[in-house]
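pipeline/complex-builder :: batch 7 item 3
reading input block
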Amino acid sequence: MFGIKADWSLEVFERYFTLDDYGAGGDVRWCSGCGDFAILNTVHRILRDAQVAPELSVAVSGIGCSSRMPHYMGTYGLHGLHGRALPLANGIKSRRPELDVWVATGDGDCFSIGAGPWLHSMHLNMDMVILVFDNGIYGLTKKQTSPTTKQGTKTNTHPQGAILPPLNPLTITLGITNISFVAQVVDWNPPLLYETIKAAHQHRGTSFVRVLQRCPVFSEEFTKPLQDNPDQFTLLEHEDGITIDDNVKRLFHNVVEHDPKDWLGAMKYARDQENIPLGILFKDPDAIVYEDHSSVGVGMTNEEKVAGLNAAFDKFSI
Amino acid sequence: MNDQVTTAKQLPIQEPQKIDEHIVEIVSDSGEGAQKCGQTFGAIGGKMGNGIWTVEIIPAEIQPPARTPAGGSGNRIRVGSKIMTNMGNEADLVVGFNEQVLYARIANGAYKDGTIVLLENKWASDPQEKIRDEYAFAVDEFKKNGLIVHELPMEEECLKIVKNARKGKNMFVLGMLCRIYNRDPKLGLNEIHNTFKHKGDKVVKPNQDLFNSGYEFAKNNLEYFYDIPPYEGSDKDLDRIIVTNGNTAVGLGVMASGMEMISMYPITPATSATHYVAEVYHNVGGFIHQAEDEIAAVGFAIGASYAGKTACTITSGPGMALKTELIGLAVMGEIPLVIVDVQRGGPSTGLPTKVEQSDLLAALYGEPGDAPKIIIAAATIPECFEFVIMARKLAEEFRTPVILLTDANLATGVQPWLRPDIKEEWFSAPIDQSPWDKKVPAYDWDENTGLSQRPIPGQPDGMYVLTGLSHTERSKVSYNSETNQLTSQHRSRKIAALQSTLKAPVIHGVDSQEDEGDLLVVAWGSTIGAIEEAVNILKADGHKIASLHLRFLSPLEPGLRDIFSRYKKVMTIEINYSDDPDGPMITEENRRYAQLANVLRAQFVVDIDCWSVVYGHPLQPGLLVDELTKRLDAMNA
Ligand SMILES: Cc1ncc(C[n+]2csc(CCOP(=O)(O)OP(=O)(O)O)c2C)c(N)n1
Ligand code: SF4
Ligand SMILES: [Mg+2]
């Protein structure tokens, strides 16, 4: 691959990474028609377009259909435990801030068993992208109610229908202090998916992206009505958020300007059940990024460490 | 008032009486400074070449009401002419700031017939009748129980120097103790100077005056005057001596090991280790992460370790329980990790501030599935330091979590030890970022040892996905039955491989083959000092008894089968629960054994007996001598 340098001379990059380097074309074991494919392909493309060296990127996940994603990546990966992707990802970032970290999680993995880590990881605001594959159901374990399952949906744990109205992950996330990026998107609109996740990747801090995801096997009713009627969506557009191609806009009738700095506005859109927001709800470039603190001292020399340790021992001399 | 000093006489200057050791307690309401007094008294002993073992007396509540048994705060200092390894038996001399705080100590069996009690007497003339009565009642009761009580006007003496005796009585007491134990008063004055110098002369001066006044008071009013000579060879140790508790030693160990991350959630009695490190970690480039709970704490540590920076998590029993699932991931994914478990009383919230050795089986078998890992236990405070360094090395070399067991006794026990010479080789090497050889899989298991090298993110061509699912050598998910059998075997082999590098343990109390034969006591952890002291006493009485202290619990140290076979009887002594074999309902078929006994019985199919208790306090050598004498007598009958 070639690049034009500022002095118009031609630069030959030593390494150019193709989609295959990020894992494209591998053997993927999701059901046909599963929305997870679209998310995976989008991540491959974003990494390819950003030319992140595969060895410097780490995909982390919990347990669930969605959490299989690291296995389909050509990068490093850590397929962790149910609900525990985020502490693992934060730990990776803590002393290796140069690594590019992605987290794949599900609505059960993140909003149920991982609810504690979800809240506290948003608070830490370490630089990574969290992709919540939200299919409104437990997929891997075969159709149990999840925190985002619609009220009345018949599942294997609630065959008479889910009892409670679902949690709203957007308002919950927006309510956490020191958050810096909250977005929502659907898996079935590739340009919108690409733009949203790309913005998340470019943002420095924890970028929370809830992806409404198709699971034709267990929760068709979760996304089908939305696919059929895009009027139920409100597209959020802004020069500081994402700008949307006219072709995409034509599909969605409701497009509004929303400045992602406007938290109150974000909360208003997040709460709206009739007009589901898509795009970037909130963005704060000034939030504290935890690894700026946790990585202090990385690379300290042995001489400095010996001096520090000797000073520590001096305190205990009698 | 002076007639209250019951046995005080105007004493002629006498020669101090030479003694080998004494156990001294200073107990007050919290906030009255008994702890500071005790620490300083211990430090002075250290400087004079004595062996010291200090135990903090910690109130059970944060702000207990004044004058209550639960509020006792202070220090117990065992000071003697040998290196001290444990807290000893009952106290010889106690200073009480009020009578109520002594009740909890009495209930703990801390005092004996003949223990000298120097008691503040101001309560005798307290305006409240209730207090006067309580005081009179207690003094009477103490005396009836054999304590030698001296009611002293400490408050009154302090008020001659300061307006508020609550601040400063502890230094008066320090002065008294320095006279009673013939300590060089200059050392005391120096300690006071160093403690208060940042507050200026207006604080240093009155405290030193109080010290002098206490010194003179004891000289003129008390008959006790002792000399505890230094232990042999102490002079050459003196400038290398440092004084810390075991938790601080763990903290220093983390820093010396090169681990740059402690990820933790507060829990007694582990937290003070992180409190200490938090103050100085940045000086060695480290960072403490306080997570939202113990699960996230260990997850965070595993993340850092996976990325090449082996990390540490420090906790206690309840935290260990929460960490098990992720420890299992570290075993399965072969991630180096150091877990320090400062054991406390359990189960559940149990006895948070008290000692127990009840986490051994949980450490060994806590994870569902087969999760072999390395488990070591520190027996002494210096080992709390050294074993963290060893743990980090073992974790990386064997690509596995290492659990280091310490306990509340080590955590809060204070002891002088020799400052180590810092070696750069203790620190972890910088992480390898050179290209990985693509031909080498992420788990290139050696068939015999199960060992393999691991790729670190950032290494080109090393990309792999670590997973907790059963996986092949290239870390591909595999539900193949052969793969699962083989990889389980590899993870287990590592433990055997480590054992092949260990030496057989040293047996204590055996000078020649003839000493062997009757009873062997096997133990682990902080009980070493008390057990070895008891064995020495019994040996001196002509018994054939020896002891063996294990530092490695997974794998066990080699050679045990052979050692056990040389004794008529083998038993463990532990601080965890076991059934009394003579108890109601208890039979050979249902008796529950102490934890190490369980492990050894299962491994060696030898009828290993045990004696264990969960009183919450460290074992006393005297109690062990009694128990072991019973066993020895029964054997010889
Ligand atoms: C500690 C623990 N509890 C339960 C499970 C079983 N489990 C695996 S995945 C899952 C739910 C996954 O649902 P979700 O996170 O929505 O992911 P999806 O499969 O829908 O992508 C559950 C309950 C587990 N693996 N570990
Ligand atoms: S069960 Fe649903 S979420 Fe899981 S792979 Fe199949 S379609 Fe996708
Ligand atoms: Mg789901």
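note: Chain A has a mean pLDDT of 95.
queue -> next item
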